[in-house]
Amino acid sequence: MASDKESSRISGFYKMPVEKRISITSEKAALTTEEERLLGSGGGLGIEEADRMIENVIGTIAYPLGIAANFRINGKDRLVPMAIEEPSVVAAASNMARLMRGDEGIRVTSTDPVMIGQIQVLDIPDIENAMKNIIEAKAELLELANQQDPVLVRFGGGARDIQHRIIQTEAGEMLILHLLVDCRDAMGANTVNTMCETLAPVVNELTGGRVLLRIISNLADKRLVRAECFVKSEDLGGEKIVDDVVAAWAFANADPYRAATHNKGIMNGVVAVALAVAQDHRALEAGAHAYAARDGHYSSLSKWSKDDNGDLVGVLEMPMAVGIVGGVTRTHPTARLALKVMGVSKAAELAEIMAAVGLAQNLGALRALVSEGIQHGHMRLHARNLVVMAGAEGDLIGKAVEALVESGEIRFDKAQEIVKRLKG
Ligand code: MEV
Q1: Is 263 helix (H, G, I), strand (E, B) or coil?
Q2: Is 86 a catalytic residue?
Q3: Which of 192, 375, 378, 205 is nearest to 280 (CA)?
Q4: Strand order, beta sheet including 158-169
Q5: From CA 419, how far away is CA 26, in angstroms rounded?
């Protein structure tokens, strides 16, 4: 059982003022005074740091950073930072995580962090012979690849295997080599690309063909993560809701139009955590959607079912190519801090937390969709923005929000009318 200090279960977190949320987070994650100050300072990335990251810098753009509370993952409580511009996402993740805390909480596992580098070979005179030469030279090719990153090899990673595929394309037959690299705690794009580029001239010689592309694949189907949860039907609102969630999932699994939106809901959680720790979220999106279509039919990344007791069981399996060394995660001050808040010391741990959040997020969306709809939650925050714009301050904000929601007409003119009336 987590001690109070370690527990992620914080009741009424959403009602607290920002300063109180910062001090609770700071206490639980043992942040330094400087780190605590960074949280309240609106962005955390200096212009010089930004200028070192990309080209033609003229500024930075800040996102809201929230904490998803209540997550228990493999028996460990975690506060999860999420950066996102969309309302209701952090609240939904926290609410669902609360229902998933039983026993060890959300159970997660992951494969070894193996990424695939692709080498495309064209114009091969004798493809059988080319493949034979590659297979015979495999050990030397792997050795050459590993010489490119001795640090990775020292930490137990490195090139593991070379596989080949022959594909028929509109530009003719091609030999595609897959270099499998265990990237340990790195996302691995730099290492894998360097290795593939280094192997290219040798592959030219061995195949008598011409290497064209040498690049990582974002369909990281050898770097998978799996999250599983269990929610009691009474906690969810009864067996009818369980049945409806399963029916909503079946819709997504059968229909790509719905699956795209269903998976977008999962990615709301995954990408929000990815942004908080400065991961390459485009790579994650690409991998997730390609994996969802791996058998030629785009479908749901998750699966929801009812067990013999009428309770809900959820599973999410997806690629999760994330790293905590060698990327921006270590140099971006807020990303570093977010990693500390989560208590993450391995890339696999981060990947597993992200899958757990994706699964909770998915249930949050489905639960809302099968009951009150998702506009309800969105509209409350919208109402809050409207009453503040209409001049409400302090205690009056809550009262005006209630009145505006109650009126059922969540518009600016109505907000103005209510605020004026309440101000007397
Ligand atoms: C909105 O950002 C995400 C949802 O559309 C996901 C879903 O429909 O499952 C609510």
Answers
A1: helix
A2: yes
A3: 192
A4: 158-169, 172-182, 114-122, 210-216
A5: 36
Q: For 240, how many CA atoms within 13 A lie in the half-sphere containing its CB?
A: 3
**What is the number of other CB atoms lying within 10 angstroms of the CB of residue 379?**
18
Q: How far apart are CA 357 and CA 70, in angstroms?
A: 11
What is the C-alpha separation between 383 and 402, in angstroms, rounded?
9
Mutate to test the pocket of ligand 1, among 89, 245, 253, 268 (most ligand atoms within 8 A of CB): 268
| Distances in whole angstroms, Cα of residue 81 to Cα of each of 11, 156, 297, 408 | 17, 29, 33, 33
Region 58-84 average pLDDT: 95
Interval between CA 370 and ligand 1 midpoint (Å): 12
CB 71 within 8 A of CB 343: no
4 is catalytic: no
The residues with which 119 forms a beta bridge, in sequence order, are 177, 214
Residues 23 and 91: their CA atoms lie apart, in Å, by: 19
Would residue 378 show up in a list of annotated catalytic residues for this protein?
Answer: yes
Residue 394 tokens read as: 């302090």
Question: Is 74 within 8 Å of 104 (Cβ atoms)?
Answer: yes
Residue 264 φ/ψ, nearest 5 degrees = -60, -40
Is there an atom of ligand 1 within 6 Å of 363 CB? no
Q: Which of 10-24, 210-224, 405-419 has the highest mean pLDDT?
A: 210-224
Average pLDDT value over all residues in the chain: 94
Residue 1, pLDDT score: 44
Which of 264, 270, 379 has the most ligand 1 atoms within 8 A of CB, as the residue to mutate?
264
pLDDT digits (tens, 9 = 90+) for 324-346: 998 888 889 999 999 999 999 99
The answer to whether the Cα torsion of 11, 12, 16, 22 is positive or negative is: positive
Under a CB-based contact definition with an 8 Å cutoff, are residues 317 and 107 in contact? Answer: no
